[in-house]
Amino acid sequence: AIHFLVVSWLTLFCAFLNGQKQQTSPCPKLFQYEAKNPNELDKWFGKITLTTDTDLIGAVWLLIIFDKPVLQLGTKFGQKILRLKPTEFLVQNLGYTLYADTPVPVRFFVKYTRGEVPPKLTEFRINSRIACPEAPSHRPPSSGIVLENVNSIFSNKTNKKKPEGGNIQAMSSIYIDRPVLELPDIPCGKVAETPIGLIAFGENTIPGQWPWHVAIYNFIEAQMRYTCGGSLISKKHVLTAAHCLTKARTTNPVKIDILTVYLGKHNLNNFGQEVQERKVSKITLHPQFSYNVLYNDIAILTLSEPVKFTDFVRPVCIWDDYIALDIVFDRLGTVVGWGFDENQQISNTLKKVEMPVKTHTDCILSNNEFFSKVMTKNNYCAGFRNGSSACNGDSGGGMVFPKQGTSGADTIWHIRGLVSIGVALQGQYICDNKQYIVFTDVAKYLKWIKDVLNEK
Question: Of the listed 213, 231, 237, 243, which one is catalytic?
């Protein structure tokens, strides 16, 4: 018994000594360890100082990395803490603005296995950019949200140069004059009245013009990446492409806790008051989705909580016209998205384009080697092939048409297609305006969509 007590006492004493050792900060100006509490042998406290040289408006992500596994990290900064790995934690503070040259202290604690050497902080990042260890000659730069839209479609020019950049260098302020008021349940497919007319073919859109289009972000490799578009079809459901929500070359869905959906967004740099953020509670892939050739490339996201309908966030109608494809042959459908521009750069501003729906025969004859492998009865192709198209769009984004008999301010929009795949997307970072794009035909999945929406 005495031997057991001595061993136990020595174990505790060694743990105490380990915890009392003064850790060395990798960036003394921006992170300090606090004095150890002798009554807490499995915990230490520290303070990080957040600083930036340009305003980070609307969202701050703080990634903290350790040299060994951590059991728990706690802080009052932000709304949610994600444990990405045993050694990496992401603190999300959405709606928060970190102003330039205005340091903000963030106190946190780390809990670890009692009796072991405490884990050490080795690095932290602010909005994906490394702030600690400090670079010898410069401070942490701004935002660092990465745009990863490799599934963009046609542009004005064909440029074989891989697009440079993609990192947002500053989170700009874009103020909306119209008040953001929650509206009662409203009919689908209706856009708020605005004194500004429609935007010309291929040009920028205006805030609220396509209120159902959403931006889907994915947390990948310690960065928030914009990956796909989608369409709001109810207060809690977003329709998108299945390949946007699966791990590469599999039918396995990604983890829901790494997804974030932004609604009401017009500029990717802006997280203003009109933008709503929702986490995801469920991913429903079509049961016959095939990743090889993207058959049945359709999925539905269930949001963690209902959205609020405003002038900037509204649902699109599900297609309820004839499901036969010939009803839309050579009709112009509208596609919107944050795709590549004519210079092969990611467009931060939502753009639109109109393109005609073509027959399967047209598609296959244009490129038999490609389209003969991917065309089915449940998809269709669309686009111009004359080199003059100014088409920008995102995978998962919708192709919409005005309902028959509606026009002008009374137009009701319903969704017929989802951007799925194109020849230019096969491992290349170029937009080929000489090829058609394949769309999943939403009209062929109406029963499946209804069943998912009616699930309890």
Answer: 243
